[in-house]
Design brief:
The protein is mainly beta. The protein has two domains: about 220 residues, Pectate Lyase C-like (3 Solenoid); about 80 residues, no CATH class. About 5% of the residues lie in helices and about 45% in strands. The chain contains three helices and 36 strands. The strands form two sheets. It has a 23-stranded mixed beta sheet that branches. It is elongated and about 70 Å long. The N terminus is likely disordered.
Length: about 350
Amino acid sequence: MSRIKSVLFLLALAAQVPLASAAVTYVVGSCKPNLHSFTTINGALAATPPPNVVEVCPGTYNEQVVITQAVILEGIPEGILTGDSAQAIVAPPAGGLVANATDDLGNSLAVQIWVNNSAGPVNISDLAVDGTGNGILGGALVIGIFFQNSPGIVNHVTTRNQTDNGNGIGVWLEGGSANPTVTVENSDMHDFDRTAVFDETNSSISALTANIKSNFIDAGAGATRGIDLEEGATSNVTGNSITGGFSGIHAQSPGGNISSNTIMGTTIGIQDGSAASVTSNKIFTSSVGIEIFGAGGVFVQGNTIVGAAQDGINFQCLSTTTTDVHSNTIIDAGTGIANVPGAVVSSNSYLNVATIQSGGC
């Protein structure tokens, strides 16, 4: 075959092989003039061709963002560009938030970033979601980020000022028919008035895997819970630091684990009514370290509870079906283990505890 024929043959062969599609990246703002830019996050998400990546310049974006397709949404820290610490902030529109979503129980929600039934993963990072000026006085619940039946990751995100007469939530994870996995990690959540991270699905079985790890949560004095794990989710909660609020972690999920968290200054450290294991947590609390409210399958081992003025572990007089509440260390407590049913044996280590065990159930 001649050289010309060989070249023609190779060109014809190459024409039959589709080129890999290039990633589409847009920028919101003007900090990267080499990229196709938009003035709003929603504008970039709705563009054609649809983006794989949306980068958000430092600044405040007054909009309620809705995401329906797989995408990376990431803020660009100002330090990369000019050396200072400005953030990319999603904030309410000038007129306040409006109800724009409904959860699977029919509650009306006013969501700042709504990931709505995306088939592919949505990864959100390096953004601040600020609910200041949300204008909601009741009715709809104020939500910072809502993953609804969608997989993805929330990483290095700040949620703050999600307040709504006691119903504001930083991050809400809800499962569904897609049985998604969502990870919330390395994030900072504060100034909410109900819960920093909430997971649930209206399902009798788990329809969501929630991985909540290495976050910093300040519930302040008035919030209800730091992390709230409800039905229909398998919840893995590890390595978080939680301060303030009525309870650090409330668990009613059908599975998962709650381990290696540090909880300080709450009325109750962990409320456990779940099938998730509760192990190796450190609880420095003001009233009750761990409160058991599930009737069976409780697995609470290897936790350290310090400074529980009332009870280290309170069994609530529930006759658990296992004896897997043991090997915990309880220091400086009014009562080590309280309201213990007669059938339950719980062997723990105690130091400076006024009453080791109380029963009467």
